[in-house]
Amino acid sequence: MACAAAHMFVYNATLCACDPGYYLFTNSTGGGNASSASTSCVSLPRSGDGFGDWQVGSVGASRNQSFYFLTPVLSLDVVRRLTQSQAVILWVALLTLLSWLAFCAAARFAGQDPERHKKLFGARFWVSRLDCIFDNNHYANDQKVLRKRKTELGGTFSVATLILFLGLVIVLLYQAINRRNAQVHRVKPANAPDLLDFVNDLEFHITTVSSMSCAQVVAPSTIAMGTPGFMDFRVLPLSTLLTYSCQNTSEGPSITLKCNGCRIPPRDHYVSWQFVDLPRQPAAAVGFQFNLTAREHGDYKDMSFVSGTLSSDNYDDAKLKTFRGPDSNVLKIQLFPQIYNHLHGLKLLQPLVQDFTQGSILSDLSSLNASLHNPRDGVINTTLFISYLSDYIVEISNENVLGPVSILASIGGLYAFSVAFFLCLMAQCEGRIKKLRDEDTRMLKILSKQRAQRNWNKVRKFVMYTWGPSNLDPTDRSGKWPEGSVMDSIHGSFHKIRKPTRRGTSNGSKPKEPADMAVEIERVGETQQPSSSRLQYL
């Protein structure tokens, strides 16, 4: 006879069993009214592959499960990684700072000519108006009186200082909110009244990873308390302290031991059970999965737990092994009393997996085949060793680390750092580039010249529309408008409405006519350009 599945061998001439480290896994599939099942020998994944990693949790572990309904819409892991990283906030502040400096540099180099690039030159002017931090801290080695100066470089560095300062303050506030409390653990000696206050609901779920079923379990009937060989050693019925149940799962039979409203005395406890051979179902396993929880009696929100997987490769070489034989597999669990002062004195027993002692194991095919033929090896013994650490009690409380005074002091330090950093940059720039020392004066001169030019254009238009065309208009040097033009009619109607006022003079000379006055203004305009002060006055 030959076995069809991989990693199988024949024993007793008619039966098939899985190789050491493998167990028979049944995969059931159904479609409509028909269903089929396929069996194959599989092994436990290695612990380094992320399977069966140990997890230890404490208070509030069950509260976080209520947010898992958002997982199909929003990945909470991605959001948590982004919001918990201070580097994200720093990168955003750095990108904003570099973008502002790049904009100011582009506006300065591209907006040199105010006639062709009016918008860029206007942007440069408004950047200079933003100089609110360094307007009194410019280059002072020119022996001039220190005065308030608003320059383009000062405006650039003022805004850059505020961007850097706000970015650092946001990081500081995030750190203060995220780490405002520190969890402090204090250890104190325990006495009997303190230990009697710990009333918890304990659940021990231990799954034997195998192809066995609950029909092969010899259920435990007693529980041992104390140290064997000493006067405090007792053997009591299991029902006086724990309730037992077994459930078949896809990984194998799951043993559940519960203790509701349990006051465990400060002594060790031992609970043992075993699996035996049945026809065509040998007793063999490849590992143990455990999930141990503790809740305060009557409180279903907070719990302490520990979970994980124990296999043959946790404590030995990389060979695949099968648990089978009379030696017992001992799982040692410690219950540690903890008081959470910041949660109204919540008292929980923290379960911890301290040790796992392997029982009888088989690693080669010949030894496993020989064990399957030996009726004395047809058993898997498992012992749960519960140790109660009752000498000390851990008190957990949250204490404030950052106060309002320390936060304000940190904000002041960040502001001083931001100002000092950009003040040094500005001093270096103005000290090495002489052109930057008086750029505010040059900026004001350019603006004053533009303002004078606009006022001069207004005067030219006023003279042109009032007394007719003149040489002041660069578009027409002839001095006459074309006959029958619109300007001719406007000029005629204007002279019909407006009459010059005659005034007496001391020397008796006649007042000048408007036409003569226009000619004289033309002559003055051709010979002499108005000064900037006179244009400003006009």
TrEMBL record:
Per the record, where are the segments of Basic residues compositional bias? 493-502
Q: Where are the transmembrane segments?
A: 88-110, 153-177, 407-427
Q: Where is this region: Disordered?
A: 493-538
**Composition-biased stretches (Basic and acidic residues):** 510-525
- Establish whether keyword Membrane is in the entry: yes
- Biased-composition ranges, Polar residues, are 526-538
| Record's keyword terms, sorted | Membrane, Transmembrane, Transmembrane helix
Name under which the protein is recorded = Monocopper oxidase-like protein SKU5
Gene that produces this protein: LOC103634714
